[in-house]
Structure formats: C-alpha cells, structure tokens
Specification:
It is a single chain. With 452 residues, the protein is an alpha/beta fold. The chain has 17 helices and 13 strands. The strands form two sheets. The chain has an eleven-stranded mixed β-sheet, sandwiched between helices. Helix 9 crosses helix 13. The longest helix is centred in the C-terminal third of the chain and has 21 residues.
Length: 452
C-alpha cells in the first residue's frame, strides 16, 4: 500500500481521483468522502501504536450488499418497497472498521447480485477503465472500478458465481474469492447461501492477504485450517505462509471447455502468462476435467433455486418482479420452476464432485485457468441486442463458477501486458480452506506476471 504523509493526504488523493473521473463517480451509489475525512482526521490525531492496526487509515469501498449502520442497503435495486437504514454494520464491515479502515463509499452492483456482466439499468453505468462503454463485470462492478480508478485502495465485494473475479479481470485488478464459510456473512443480503462468500479487490495479492487476516483472523496460525503440502513453509515471524520459489511450484492449467471459445486478445494474454510461468521455472502441465458438464449443471440448479428463494417475496409480487432487470428476472423465474428433487440431486452431485476434484488435483500446488474467456463486451450493444446480453451473461461467469461449486479459494490476477488495449485475468485456484497457502503461491505467480 502506498505511503502518504498522513491519512488525510491519502484520502485526499482518493477524493481527487473520484472528482476527476466520471467513471469513478458512477462506481459509487453513495460516496462518503465527508464522513471519511472526519474519520481520517480522528485517526491522524490518535497517538500511534506499534504495530498499527492492519488497515489503519486505508481507504476502502463497500459493495451495496453489505449493511452499514445508518445507511440503506439497496442491493442494486430501485424498489417501491421502503428500505430502512441498517441498525448495525455487517460483521465484515465491523471487522474492517476495528482494523482502522476509512470507508469512502458504497458501490454499484448488478441487481440483487444476480448477474456477472456488471450491467444495472437502474443506476448510472460504470465501465471498464480499459474503454468507455465496455462492461465492467459484476456483480461487484463498482468495487472493482473504484480500485482500478484509484478511489479506494481495496474494496469489499461478494462472490456467488464469479462476482469478484469477473470484474477484477475486466477492470485489470486483483480479485480474491475465499473459501465459502471462512468469513461471516452476517449483515450481507443473501443470494445463494451455499455458494455466497465475501471477498476483496486490490491492486496486489499482498493487500488481499491483509484483508483476509482482518476478516478471517482464525486463519492466522501455523496449522491454518488445511493440511499443508511439504512445499508449504510457515513463517512464524510474519505469521503467514512463505512465498514459494517458482521452481517448487507444480501448476495444472485447465484445458478443454474452459479454454474453448476464447477471443484472440484473451487467449494471447493467457498463453503468454503460461509461457512466462514456465520460463520462471514453474512446472505447468495441462489438465482436463472429465466432469465439467456435471459441475455446470449442479451450479445452474443450486444458483437459480437458492437465488429465487432468496428473492421469494419479489417472485410472488408481479409489480415488483416487473421492475427487475430482464436477465435477473428470468433467472428468478427459472429458479422458481426447478423441482426440489433436482435441487437435492444437485447438492449431492456437488459433494461428490468436490471429492473427485480433490483427488484429481492431489499432486499439484495450484490450478490456473482464464478468469473470463473473452474481453469485456460493449454496453450499448448488449443493451440493444438481447442475444448479445445473453451471451455476455453466459460467458462472463462460465469459468468462474467452477470454484464456487467446488468451494475452493480462487484469485484473479491481471495477465495482460502493460499497455494492452484489453484486459485479461488469470485465475489461480487452491484447496478448500487453504486460502493462506493459495495467496502465497499466487504472490509467486504475480511476480512473474508483473514482468509481462
């Protein structure tokens, strides 16, 4: 994290980034710079302690799905129903406040977090910083844009089927989805509870690790919550997994359906990243998933059924449902029609596939794949062409859904070359509850990608 003379100076730099960018302004549904300035002054006036809290003075943006005391949580909606201000902070918001974070605002998202395009017709539409009019990805669109535009150092998001990693890839930042259940979702509007997780956007892996240490402090032990491999080394001084040497990393790169239909810019960036990793000494070998179709079908059923149930009141109110964005509305309607027997079967399939995937990848340290197989599409084209919007919705989260079904941590790293016209993301996946070790391995990969 960049060092400033004072917390107030740091915040002022964020405020200027906000003021100078229309896109940055669209990333926020509620900017909170006046409150943040008062908070920054209080922190600057507080006698320094050693060590300082992990997020002392760090500007953070918060997705509009998290409760914040005194603020209304709209979850990307413009509803006729009255939304009362939250009486308390979500658990994760409380955690970052205790660690000294300065909250700069609440951010744009897709409606009810039920789409990965980043499109929401009810609010001014932010775009990818790589081109005016390009989709930012979602559902945590505003959080990704806020970090990419320099308005926040890190940002909170949620991820159910790719809602952190898709916008991270399309906005050129780092996006981390932890293992589901690792971070409390108290005070977070649910979408699909068995898939939902809280995660983070940042400009580097280290800042994601810092956020994880605050939001899931029980991971901060030598044993963690996973069985380490012989190549994992715990650093007792820094209380974190040591960053491995590239020569000690064994990587599986997923091929087959997950790399089909890639557009030329994304494929070029992805293949160049794999070549760079091999050139650094990493063992990178292809791997195909024999059960990919089963994973996607289980995800579709669980995601749609739980998403429809979380929005049952809307599904049963014709007037409310008519106001919902078409992509989201169709998912609620489809989910409401899926029989309970299919849902139970999908849950059982998911458990079986988690075991199968663990066995298939037992001898590798991490799995990599393209975060999104295509570059961000044009917003105007998607608005005018329902087929283009449907394709964007399908392709944006095709690859990211994998780690939600398997419940493994995953992080998207920018893998395009410096100065590239279009962004691309490389996803690194770990083992369930092996979040700390994954971040250490991702740091080693990040160092290679930064040289592209």
């Amino acid at each position: 994290m960049t060092t400033y003379a004072s917390i107030a100076d740091n915040l002022e730099a964020c405020r200027q980034a906000y003021a100078n960018s229309t896109n940055a302004q669209k990333a926020f549904t509620v900017p909170l710079f006046d409150e943040a300035a008062q908070h920054a002054e209080r922190l600057d006036a507080t006698p320094a302690t050693r060590p300082a809290p992990a997020l002392w003075g760090v500007p953070i943006a918060v997705k509009d799905i998290f409760d914040m005391h005194g603020h209304r949580t709209f979850n990307g909606r413009q509803s006729t129903r009255t939304v009362e201000p939250a009486e308390s902070d979500a658990a994760v918001v409380s955690a970052i406040r205790r660690a000294g974070a300065v909250i700069v605002g609440r951010t744009h998202q897709t409606e009810m977090a039920f789409s990965a395009t980043g499109y929401n017709p009810h609010y001014p539409q932010p775009h990818s910083p790589f081109g005016k009019g390009l989709m930012p990805g979602g559902s945590s669109s505003g959080s990704a844009v806020a970090v990419a535009e320099g308005v926040a150092t890190v940002a909170l998001g949620t991820d159910t089927g790719g809602s952190i990693r898709v916008p991270a890839a399309w906005c050129g930042v780092v996006g981390f989805k932890p293992t589901s259940g690792l971070i409390s979702l108290e005070g977070v509007v649910p979408l699909a509870p068995s898939l939902d997780t809280c995660g983070f956007f940042a400009r580097n892996v280290a800042d994601c690790a810092r956020m994880l240490s605050v939001c899931a402090p029980h991971l901060d032990t030598a044993e963690g919550t996973m069985k380490p491999t012989p190549r994992d080394v715990w650093d007792s001084e820094s209380k974190s997994w040591a960053i491995p040497s590239p020569q000690n990393l064994r990587i599986a790169c997923l091929e087959g359906t997950l790399t089909n239909d890639m557009d030329a810019p994304t494929e070029a960036s992805y293949r160049a990243a794999l070549d760079a990793m091999r050139g650094a000494g990493m063992s990178v070998e292809p791997l195909e998933l024999p059960f990919f179709d089963e994973i996607m079908e289980a995800m579709r059923v669980i995601f749609y059924v739980e998403g429809a149930h979380s929005n049952l009141a809307i599904a049963r109110d014709a007037e409310e449902l008519a106001q919902v964005d078409e992509t989201v509305r169709l998912r609620i309607v489809d989910g409401s029609a899926i029989p309970a027997t299919e849902y139970v079967t999908a849950l059982r399939t998911r458990a079986r596939l988690q075991t199968a995937m663990s066995e298939l990848t037992a001898n590798v340290d991490a799995i990599v794949l393209p975060t999104v197989p295509v570059a961000p599409p044009d917003v105007a084209k998607c608005e005018s062409d329902p087929n283009a919007m449907a394709t964007a919705a399908r392709m944006s989260s095709r690859n990211t859904r994998l780690s939600n079904v398997l419940n493994v941590p995953a992080i998207s790293l920018p893998c395009h070359k410096v100065g590239a016209e279009l962004p691309a993301g490389l996803t690194v996946m770990g083992r369930t509850r092996g979040d700390g070790a994954l971040l250490a391995r991702a740091t080693a990969i990040e160092r290679v990608l930064l040289a592209l």
